[in-house]
Design a protein that fits this description.
Two copies of one chain form a homodimer.
Chain A (H helix, E strand, L loop, with lengths): L7 H17 L6 H8 L3 H7 L3 H26 L4 H17 L4 H7 L6 H27 L7 H13 L1 H4 L8 H12 L4 H9 L1
Chain A binds a DNA duplex through α3.
DNA sequence: GTCTATAAACGGATAGAC
DNA sequence: GTCTATCCGTTTATAGAC
């Protein structure tokens, strides 16, 4: 249903909605604000979306799908070592979060605001993305690159990455790639990455 | 003003408000919901708080003050090594976040919803707590326990810890102390903690 | 596909009695 | 310190014209 209903107009509106949801939060974003940002009146919005919930669902679907596609692409492009793959995954994650800076952020931070139907419909997408992460973490564990409990390590890593949204300054000197590099240096000290960091100090 | 205005009644109401704010989020929590939880009518609420904003400010002040007090206490009690201190700090942080599970969570996740006056009034408290963290991270860096950029390491660590709120199951087998232990094992592999983890695998 | 107009419900907050 | 009653702005969503 959502795949069929993808007019270019609707896609553009979804993109604008994502921006507002990040800035204000879903609850504080009114349909009037959305409409104004889109250059139409609030009544017209409901020609494109059944209700406000459906806008949120569209944004989150877009954000997760996008993250999934970019992550898969990054994993195909990168080298075959566990470190390469972990780095590629972290970098892709941060780029969708900090550069694109919209739909993926909403997917992470406003998931709770989805009603149960939308959650059921989108959870498979979310699971697919998390499965990709789990696989990369597993490889890094098997390789001895990092150590610890599978469950906890993946959640700590995701937490460190997801929290960047709160403090990252896009105008600052650090790029998403730098952050990915530094995170891996922090948790996998026997890598080239870590050597570079430790000699720098 | 806030220190003076601390009737036991108001403190109890603040505690209940924190619980609802965690469950529903600040924006979705109505004054009617708050009143019902407190066993009074919505009009009576405004005898204790000037407006809804002041309730949020009270919760966040309580949560941050509490985290600060417990962290200071933990640092006084623990051993003097950098690892001991980092562990004590992480453990205290997680306990206020996951066991108490209320006001500190609100302080972290609803800070953005404070108006500018409240933010100005509370930022010194927040800064004091973050300064405690920075000091402990600095000690760990100086000691060689962990490596990397001061700014990034502290934010990655805080992110990993703060994100636990999203997935931690209080009914599960892991205690906050276990999480603190595993996080340090992950980022400081030359410790006893890490040895235990790696031999377990 | 967008507009105007408006319904219907809900939100925070106040006044004054007890 | 709490209650009842209520004001009034805001919100989501709909109806029907263009």
């Amino acid at each position: 249903m959502n795949v069929v209903n993808e007019s270019p107009r609707r896609k553009e509106l979804t993109r604008l909605a994502a921006q507002l949801f990040v800035q204000e939060g879903f609850d504080r974003t009114t349909v009037r604000m959305l409409a104004q940002e889109m250059g139409i009146k609030s009544g017209s919005l409901f020609h494109h979306f059944r209700d406000k919930q459906e806008i949120l669902a569209a944004v989150i679907e877009e954000g997760t799908q996008n993250a999934l596609t970019l992550a898969r692409h990054a994993l195909e492009q990168c080298g075959g070592s566990a470190e390469d793959r972990l780095h590629a995954m972290a970098r892709a994650h941060l780029e969708t979060l900090l550069t694109d800076r919209n739909a993926h952020v909403v997917a992470l931070y406003e998931w709770r605001r989805l009603d149960s139907e939308a959650r059921a419909h989108l959870s498979h997408l979310r699971d697919a993305y998390e499965a990709l992460w789990e696989a990369v973490i597993d490889e890094a564990l098997d390789d001895g690159l990092i150590r610890g409990d599978r469950f906890l390590v993946s959640r700590f890593v995701m937490g460190a990455l997801n929290w960047t949204v709160r403090w990252y300054d896009p105008e600052g000197p650090r790029k998403p790639e730098d952050l990915a590099h530094e995170l891996i240096a922090m948790i996998a000290p026997s890598t080239q990455a870590a050597q570079a960091v430790s000699t720098k100090v």
